Amino acid sequence: MPDVAIITGSASDSAIAEKAAKVLDEYGITYDLQVISAHRDPDRLEGYVKASDAKVFICIAGMSAALPGVVASKTKKPVIGVPVSGKLLGGLDALLSVVQMPKGVPVACVAVDGGENAAHLAARILGVA
Predict the structure, then answer these.
(1) Residue 56 neighbours by CB distance under 10 Å
(2) I need a labelling partner for 75 at 20 to 30 A (CA). Which of 12, 36, 38, 57 fits?
(3) pLDDT-based confidence at 22, cuts 50/70/90?
(4) How far is it, in rounded angstroms, from Cα 2 to Cα 52?
(5) Among 108, 90, 86, 116, which residue's Cα sits nearest to residue 20?
């Protein structure tokens, strides 16, 4: 049973997921890493979130960055969004998407490409840091 679920919206986000995983390893925090697109595979994403025993979700996504918000809409557990830099706007589009959540669907947000800080935040939420 992992303490943290790391979900990326695309395999192209794996370098940022690896940064988060490295920090979680340093803390001795267990995690599960999945690549599940909120747009291309919404049913699989919902099933994974609902079945997960993770206490915290780290969601890594670029462009429209819908992943953190979709996950937050499916669980009451903490969700940390990591916006990913893009080719046109340098991640500003993803950053704005992650921080503009409606009332009742909170998502914590770290810096663009901030996988390490997402893991540090997850450790603090878990009371491990």
Answers:
(1) 24
(2) 12
(3) very high
(4) 8
(5) 116
Query: What is d(CA 92, CA 62) in angstroms, rounded to the nearest whole number?
Result: 9
Q: How far apart are CA 99 and CA 11, in angstroms?
A: 23
**Residue-wise pLDDT tens digits, 28-79:** 999 999 999 999 999 999 999 999 999 999 999 999 899 999 999 999 999 9
How do beta strands 56-62 and 79-84 pair?
Answer: parallel
pLDDT band at 87 (very low <50, low <70, confident <90, very high): confident
DSSP string, the chain: --SEEEEESSGGGHHHHHHHHHHHHHHT--EEEEE--TTT-HHHHHHHHHH---SEEEEEEETT--HHHHHHHH-SS-EEEEEE--TTTTTHHHHHHHH-PPTT---EE--TT-HHHHHHHHHHHHT--
What are the distances in angstroms from CA 107 to CA 12, 28, 94?
Answer: 22, 24, 13
What's the pTM value of the predicted model, to 2 decimals? 0.96
Are the CB atoms for 91 and 110 separated by under 8 Å?
A: no
Confidence at residue 33, expressed as pLDDT on a 0 to 100 scale = 98
